[in-house]
Amino acid sequence: MPIINKDLHDFVPDNKSVALLIIDMINDFEFDDGEKLYEFALPAAKQIALLKASAKKQNVPVIYVNDNYGKWQSDFRHLIDHCLHDGVRGQAITELLLPDDDDYFVLKPKYSGFYSTPLDLLLQYLKVNTLIITGVAGNMCVQFTANDAYMRDFLLYIPEDCVASNDKIVNEEAIHLMKTVLKASTAHSTHLKIEEIITKANQCEHKPL
User: 183 Cβ partners below 8 Å, 6+ apart?
Assistant: First the structure.
């Protein structure tokens, strides 16, 4: 019998219990308060890039979850091209976090990465039960996505140095809420041991909804 769930080209890592989400970091930051957000997003991007490199070494799938900015005719590759070549504020961040060919991407119409997107199906396909969530803004799209992930029973890691908002205090409040209410681990990314997260996830018997 053929394996229905197998990737046709053996190109992407199937059946991984952990996934890394990068939310809204492929972004031109050319909007109201974009300059303020960029100030905090750039150092977060540098940490996310390091975390992504560590995750890739352990074959953890990386999923870019991005706004479509109301442009229904656009796609993710067009957005990358815009951020790289149109002289926008977010160019340096896009260069730091340029997606690899084997990364996944999901376009979202609203704040949560789960709302009206195929993210649920993708995570089911990969058999993921644990999410490492990074990106912007901490008090908006990251928090909305984390809320929906928690409601689906995912185990959550949201490293505090990999999340940014346009105000430091607001960001800290969002991280505190995700730690206390959503039971997320918010330890600094340098304290995360990807191998240990994978081991814990593989030992977990529960399945997300």
Answer: 150, 156
CB-based contact 140:31 (threshold 8 Å): no
Chain centre to alpha carbon of residue 14: 18
Q: Which residue range(s) make up the domain with 121?
A: 18-203
Based on the structure, what is the number of domains in the chain?
Answer: 1
User: Does 144 fall in a domain?
Assistant: yes
**186 found inside a domain:** yes
Q: List, for residues 120-150, the tens digit of each pLDDT value.
A: 999 999 999 999 999 999 999 999 999 999 9
Distance (Å, rounded) from C-alpha 124 to C-alpha 184? 20
Q: Check: CB of residue 198 under 8 Å from CB of residue 17.
A: yes
What CATH number is associated with residue 134? Answer: 3.40.50.850
Q: How far apart are CA 98 and CA 182, in angstroms?
A: 29
Please tell me the distance from the alpha carbon of residue 12 to that of residue 103, in angstroms, as a whole number: 8
CA distance 174 to 10: 39
Q: Sign of dihedral through CA atoms 142, 25, 62, 109?
A: positive
Q: Is residue 65 part of a domain?
A: yes
**pTM given for the model:** 0.90
pLDDT of residue 2: 41
Is residue 6 in a domain? no
* Residue 18, Cβ density class (10 Å: 0-12 exposed, 13-18 middle, ≥19 buried): buried
